[in-house]
Amino acid sequence: MTPLAAIRAIDPALPPREWMAAAFAIARSVGLDDATCASPGEARALMRRMAAAGRADVAFGRILDGHVNAVQLVRRYAPAFAIDALLANGAILGVWNSDLPGDGLRHEGGAFAGAKNFASGAGFVTHPIVTTDANDPAGTRMWLLDMAAADPEIDRDWWHPIGMVRSETHIVHLGGVPLATAHAIGGPGDYQRQPDFSAGALRFVAVQAGAVHALFDHVRDHLNAGNRAAHPQQAHRLARLFVLADAGYALIDGVAAHWTGDDDVLLARVAAARGALEDIATEAMALAQSAVGVQGMLRTHPLARTLTDLTVYLRQPNPDGARSQAGAAAAAGRIEPGA
Q: Is 305 domain-assigned?
């Protein structure tokens, strides 16, 4: 059984903590969690791994994105920290940067105060990086938190989305948790240091690209199972889905080729890729729904989870700003098609 098939075969009735543990075990067995990304070739390979995760399950791709991000941050800004030993013990990392409005995370004396929201994996991530003073880019600090030692209050009543339920994205209250339960990562301002901060968005673009491939998978399987793939209109839909899924891979490969080049070009291309993949995914979801019909809206159909998860996961921060950034770079001649 391939890793893709093995992850998809995990019992969907398992609690998210157990489901993710099983998915990570499979991912680790084939190196899907490898965070190496120091050259264009390595960047392409990483983005292909992220896409493979998104193709298997969008929520798993989201959690793997956070894990890889955190591993990269620790290795970049705290090279003396024994991250490999932590990973060998099965740790799942994440990055929680979004503050609870009105009660952002900070440190007062020897303890944390405040809370994080949109904390993906709060039900099972063992070692998240949390940021303090997140609204002050020059002063933001990173802390690798040991969840078992910290034992924070987790508000699970807030997360009731139409998709990405398995990601366990909750509010985490850290008030009173001792700083001693966390390890400082880097210094003030390191978290949002460019180009790594913005270029890292290509990871979620890659997960989205894999999700588009999953739409193609589910539609093809459905049409073949019902002996409907030869119908002219269905064949046209499937052909278009193939083109869209293939374009997603071309998109992330093209950006990865610029990974160690000019920072302005890389960041503009990442911004352009964000908008382009959103457009690709939006068209692909509409085609998939037209091809499968109401059966794809049933929770028991494999298409349903991918549709709802991708609908939620496409909603990333500041999409208009990303398109504006790409447009400005194009107008100034900093990026050129085919270059």
A: yes
Choose one of 44, 60, 88: the last residue of a domain. 88
Using an 8 Å Cβ cutoff, are 127 and 86 in contact? yes
- The answer, as to whether pTM is greater than 0.90, is yes
- For the record, the structure tokens of 258 come out as 């610029």
Give the separation between CA 230 and CA 251, rounded to whole angstroms. Answer: 29
For residue 201 the two structure tokens come to: 């968005």
pLDDT at 336 (0 to 100): 95
Domain count along the chain: 3
Q: Residue 114: which domain range? A: 93-185
Which residues lie below 8 Å from residue 253, measured CB to CB, with a gap of 6+? 44, 47
Give a yes or no: residue 63 inside a domain: yes
Q: State which of 70, 88, 106 marks the end of a domain.
A: 88
Strand partners, 153: 173
Give me the pLDDT at residue 123, please: 87
The dihedral formed by the CA atoms of 100, 123, 66 and 139, expressed in degrees to the nearest 10: 30
Percent of the chain surpassing pLDDT 90: 98
φ, ψ of residue 38 in degrees (nearest 5): -110, 0
